[in-house]
Fold this sequence. Notes:
By secondary structure, the protein is mainly alpha-helical. The protein has 6 helices and no strands. The chain has helices spanning 3-14, 19-26, 30-39, 54-65, 70-77, 81-90. It is elongated and about 55 Å long. The chain starts with a helix and ends in a 6-residue tail after the last helix.
Amino acid sequence: MTADERRAIAELWAQGLSVREIADHVGYAEQTVRIFAHRHRELCPYRRPPKRTDEGVARMWALRSKGMSWSAIARELGISPATVWLWRATSEDGEC
């Protein structure tokens, strides 16, 4: 990968393009771009945050206020317990 290609990937990454869009633009496979981004964190430092809806987080805290356990909340919302933990960690709406 040339210096110009590295610069182009870094610029596209900064614009918020997806890995697929960047791969299409520079003519590399998606996996190649993923590996590049992983190895060159100084150029591509930000991973996309997990998709989360504010409505889902609000429902999570509402269920928690009713005394439900975190695993019961995950089952109720149809998401994994790991997602509930992530939402808890990134949410400012309630206690951690």
